[in-house]
Amino acid sequence: MPDPRFLQIHFLAPYTAALLNRDDSGLAKRLPYGGALRTRVSSQCLKRHWRLADDPHGLHTIDGAEAAFRSREVIDRKVFADWSESVDPDVIKAIREVLLKAVYGKEGVDKKSRQTLLLGQVEVDFLIETARQLAAGAAGDAKAAKAAAEAWAKAGKANLKAMSEGAALPGGLTGALFGRMVTSDPKANIDAPVHVAHAFTVHGEEAESDYFIAADDLAREENTGADTIQETELTSGLFYGYVVVDLPGLMRNLGGDTRLAGDVLHNLLYLIAEVSPGAKLGSTAPYSRASFMLVEAGDRQPRSLAEAFRTPCAANTGMAVGKLVEHLAALDAAYATGEARRVMSLANADVPGAERGTLADIAAYARVLPARLSGTVA
Questions:
Q1: Under DSSP, is residue 343 helix (H, G, I), strand (E, B) or coil?
Q2: Is 178 inside any structural domain?
Q3: Residue 212: which domain range?
Q4: What is the pLDDT of residues 291-312, one digit of tens each?
Q5: 201 and 234, same domain (yes or no)
Q6: What Å distances lie between residue 55 and 52, 196, 363, CA to CA?
Q7: pTM of the model
């Protein structure tokens, strides 16, 4: 087959009596699809759990994975931490205000007006060194500190592109995978090579309102002991999820490092299969693993297999895999795009053109794709 341009990842994951992702009213997120309301998990929720997973296959465990911080408070919590207490507070204040405007825009001094921005470790280090130099040069003079900081900003060094000049991962590994949008500095934007769809149940929603109390252990006998009475929503479902990796885009964002790209794909497969999104951990233990995972490598535009579940099917892995296989076979017959496939499944259904294996097998397969793309592996 031609060199792979895209890696498509399809998965089915079951959850019971959980509240994986809530909306602004505290209820499970939903999606109307095929005339039925489905339970949904947003792509933002999925990505956050994958990128922050404290796991043997966590992204932070990869050699060369630069850290990044998504926050409105990087200046206060990272740039001025650990060293600024010994400097005159007025000097720090003058420099801080300039740095806040440089990073978060002209309204950056006001925390509520700041964009929640992703900054890579290299950018944070640059800002720390800049702030320290400005503070040292001011010699305790707040006016001098302000003037020097403003001169630094006007010199064109107060943008993220300049701060990360020559860095392989300006937005850290998180930015290299999931992108970065900076409204105050468009030149610092990073295109996301990892595209994540919202996961949804292959069947109509299964939900109930759970009534519960917090009991008072020391209540008198005549008291019911119900100190607090509340309600929450619990849902169950078999979710279809879909992820696409633009392999050339990933390679560009990683500076052409095929080893790093391979490690990323390997770990990402494990994270998608094994890391559960979820709230209410203490009361629902929403831990599950994918019961099915199909990866496809090809050079044509990706396509989701969500259409297989437009008509709701039973909340059963075997039946859901059957629907997916049926739809995939129809696509193959119509388009003949020729993707190479690997599959891990707890169901017995065969997938057209797919070699079956364990999660370790398909993760190992994904790992060599960047090398194939670069021509270093046949």
A1: strand
A2: no
A3: 6-64+192-374
A4: 999 999 999 999 999 999 999 9
A5: yes
A6: 9, 20, 16
A7: 0.92
